[in-house]
Amino acid sequence: MVDSTTTTRNVRDLPLVPRNPLPILRLIQAVRTLDTGQEVIRAAGGSVTRVSFGPSWLVPSLVSVMSPDAIRDVLGRNDALAERCIVHDEVRHLAGDSLFVLPNEPWRPRKRALAPVFTKVNVRKYSGHMSRAAQAFADQWRDGGDVDLDAACRTVTMRSLGRSVLGIDLNDSAAAIAEHMHVASGYTADRALRPLRAPRWLPTPARRRARAAVAAMLEVTAGILTACRADQGIDAPLVHALIGATDPETGKPLSDSDICNDLLIFMLAGHDTTATALTYALWALGHHPEVQDRVAAEAAALGDRELTAEDVAHLGYTTQVLREGLRLCPPAAGVGRLALRDIEVDGYRVKKGTLIAVGIYALHRDPQLWPDPTAFDPDRFTPERMRARERWQFLPFAGGARSCIGEHFAMLETTLALATIVRAIRLRSRDDEFPVDVPFTTVARGPITAHVEAR
Ligand code: HEM
């Protein structure tokens, strides 16, 4: 671990991160394949490796970090050293300011205003919405048949998110929102990962489509805000927290457009991710009947009633299954940062201005850290084995100051949903593989078909 007192002068004495030896075309392809590309980069250059696409005055270097120590050096340190990067800049440019994209300085007060909505204690209030959304899925499939887990889980998570923090049922607009999200996020990630980018003012067809998608989603968020302003009684904690937040410099409330931008980001960050986590866990259970029966028995032991946040303490094995799913299929395959000055990463020097790509997917599948890494084995996450493990080895929600604000929400929602669904129905996955697209976050390339029947 780097000593935070390490001076810039000391860092200058360190060797630069070694350059990755892959030919440039292979590198470009690997960098743009956000999940499995990480393993290609590591196989050729190790867990801390520098990717250069040309002279640094033309194309800034990218350093890929995929080991626990190196990731801790990037994410776990003073945020004066690492900042939002080109990925966040692209999102900011397209969709305005929000918690996700704000630079560290203006981000702090916004985080303070919104954090109470998502504390471990406060998210417990939403458990009724979460369990009922999952129960609706279970009830719908009690008679059995072939279900598309991808579509069904999106419905569950969209309903949970909408009802618990936004005060509406988003499902009427779910399909449209999902489509718009993918267009907009795919565009930003695609731009961010090009070694050379067209200028932003150029009205390319892709840009026009992305702007139209954002405009359509902002219409939905504007509708939410208008409804909450008109009726203070609407139970929409996130919207009310944003209405109550103030700008630290002016003391004024956030503008309506700032609030709408934030709501949009929460819809984006809080929906696809949990849908992927739940879909993957159900798909994996559909291939491991003995694990599935254990989850079902754990949930059934709680009785045939709506599950609550208090029940989570008795759903330890269900939680292990989810964690193993998040290891194998992390919905955020990686995160990016910009080095604000020369910094030390795992004994190497990373130059100021470098884009640092933190490879969560590769970290979670590193054979040196996880024996038989591709095998689905929830026992990796028993409490004892978790305690014995280095904290920076498992990072589905990233780590450090800017880790996921929705972690407790997501874990509660997916645990209650998995237990509720598997208690009611038995699943058999039809597909051997779990195909994904990674436009930005990792999403199932549906349909993911499972045969289901009542238990
Ligand atoms: C399994 C589900 C989820 C996963 C795996 C996940 C993962 C992550 C990761 C890795 C980050 C860090 C991104 C970065 O540094 O660039 C992040 C940030 C964020 N997530 Fe999540 N997330 C999940 C669910 C949620 C939910 C349910 C919400 C909200 C309801 C949410 C809202 C956010 C927001 C707003 C940020 C930006 C936080 C900040 O910069 O302060 N996420 N998430």
TrEMBL record:
Keywords in alphabetical order: Heme, Iron, Metal-binding, Monooxygenase, Oxidoreductase
Keyword Protein biosynthesis recorded: no
Coiled coil spans: none
Pfam families (UniProt xref): p450
SUPFAM superfamilies for this protein: Cytochrome P450
Top-rank taxon, per record: Bacteria
InterPro entries: Cyt_P450, Cyt_P450_E_grp-I, Cyt_P450_sf, Cytochrome_P450_Monoox
PANTHER family in the record: BIFUNCTIONAL ALBAFLAVENONE MONOOXYGENASE_TERPENE SYNTHASE, CYTOCHROME P450 FAMILY 4
Annotated family: Belongs to the cytochrome P450 family.
Protein name according to UniProt: Cytochrome P450
